Amino acid sequence: MTDKKPDRAARRAGSRSKGGSEEMTRKLFGTDGIRGSANVYPMTSEVALKVGMAAGTLFSNGSYRHRVVIGKDTRLSGYMIESALVSGFTAVGMDVFQLGPMPTPAVAMLTRSLRADLGVMISASHNPFADNGIKLFGPDGYKLSDDKEAEIEALLGGDMNDLLATPEKIGRATRIDSARERYIEFAKRTLPKNLRFDGIRCVIDCANGAGYKVAPEALWELGAEVIKIGVDPNGLNINRDCGSTSLDDLIRKVGEVRADIGIALDGDADRVVIVDEKGSIIDGDQLMAVIAESWLKRGRLAGGGIVATVMSNLGLERYLENLDLSLARTPVGDRYVVEHMLRHGYNVGGEQSGHIVLSDFSTTGDGLVTALQILAVVAQSGKPVSEVCNRFEPLPQVLKNVRYKSGQPLDNVAVRRAIDSGKSKLGKAGRLVIRPSGTEPVIRVMAEGDDEKLVNTVVSDIVHALKDAAA
Q1: Which of 82, 161, 373, 452 is at 20 to 30 A from 41, Cα to Cα?
Q2: CA dist., res. 63 & res. 392, Å (int)
Q3: Selecting from 3.20.20.10, 2.60.40.10, 3.40.120.10, 2.20.25.110, what CATH number does the domain 182-388 have?
């Protein structure tokens, strides 16, 4: 038997004509990797095995030993998906470094730090435990491009046996026991030298997810008094009534222990939402404003502004204008934010949801690092979080979804007329964003402006038009 690598390289051209089932030729990758219900296509062991084989083949170039880093959150199905991926990667000759439960940004960072050819995060982020997903990172720590994902899918359509390594070249799997300490040190080094959080009482909700060990440990090592919730994962309770999408317990605990700040991560710890000492919620728009102004004063802010999506509040844009900073807007999705940041030289960007990218440190959103940057401003100012983090008054913003069965409701004449009328009514005192969802058959209608009554009227008129068109 001879080495298969020349055959693998040839197969990257993507023929689907040999041996692949019709199911495997369907599009696997969505807007954030592969995602679905566990043990239901595409989130099955079979698919994970083949994805490991295909991705491992694609990122194996040269005669050296190739390596892949695999992290996961705390979902029960993570064991199943991880084992299948390990089998797939080792079968094509890749060595595997298993990190165990680790935040998504930690996987991206360790992919670069360990000079791996590929990184994998097994997670469905803020979704319930029954879902899971596979996110892939290149050797630079950035999520794979659409082209690379298409190449992986093309390999899945061929004869997978042609990808197998010879017996002496099968890969090894090793668990990296120091991964947690490596990431904690990385996160701490993002702060100004000698800065400590002594005297700050912090409640952190880790969503029973990937950050349940590293985040509280990092805060404690920096001197904070740490009260932990959402740190008892059992495989089934990730994101259940906790974390950044369910803040009631965090708000209650902040009040109960009279904390200075509450920090809520999501299941894979790539996003964060803050609660101030009064129990008020601080979203990603406010956090980006805090970091942008802080970095501007320190001479660290690049690009003359920040990058956010079309959903960020107009109040943020006006606040930045008063600082002579710009707000560049992208479509919804962290991938678009990161692409714009890289292309135009920004180092702060993110989403209203709290998925914030600080590219001086990370290649993707990092909930812990973002929280540390906010705490740094709080510690240095000596002011309460409610004063530090409320930088602007958000404009009234209304978002409604309209479900449709088929067709293109936005092409309807009456719908176009309602949209044009809404834009005219809002003028420069507001914004209107209408977009199809990338994950379900709904049209999202968002409007904001100084006049809350007008905003509601504009959204209502467009929603009625869409419902008539979708009927």
Answers
A1: 161
A2: 55
A3: 3.40.120.10
Tell me if residue 275 falls in helix, strand or coil: strand
DSSP code string of 277-319: TTS-EE-HHHHHHHHHHHHHHTT---TTEEEEETTS-HHHHHH
DSSP for 36-70 reads EETTBTTBSHHHHHHHHHHHHHHT--SSSPPEEEE
CA-closest candidate to residue 143, choices 118, 126, 124: 118
Residue 117: predicted pLDDT: 97
Amino acid 316 reads: L
Question: CA triplet 48, 356, 150: central angle to 5 degrees?
Answer: 35
Cβ distance 193 to 223 under 8 Å? no
- What CATH class does 397-470 carry? alpha beta
Q: For residues 160 and 56, is the Cβ–Cβ distance under 8 A?
A: no
Confidence of residue 439 (pLDDT cuts 50, 70, 90): low
Residues 357-386 pLDDT 10s: 999 999 999 999 999 999 999 999 999 999
**How far is CA 223 from each of CA 263, 374, 379, 407, rounded to the nearest angstrom?**
16, 15, 11, 57
- For residues 211 and 73, the answer to whether their CB atoms sit within 8 Å is no
Which amino acid type is present at position 323? L
- pLDDT digit string, tens, across residues 59-78: 998 888 999 999 999 999 99
pLDDT tier for residue 27 given thresholds of 50, 70 and 90: confident
Please report the beta strands in 281-438, taking only residues with DSSP state E, as ranges in sequence order.
281-282, 305-309, 326-330, 348-350, 356-358, 397-403, 430-436
- Return the SS3 of 137: strand
| Catalytic-labelled residue, pool 60, 125, 244, 353 | 125
Residue 262 clears pLDDT 90, i.e. is over it:
yes
* DSSP for residue 411: G
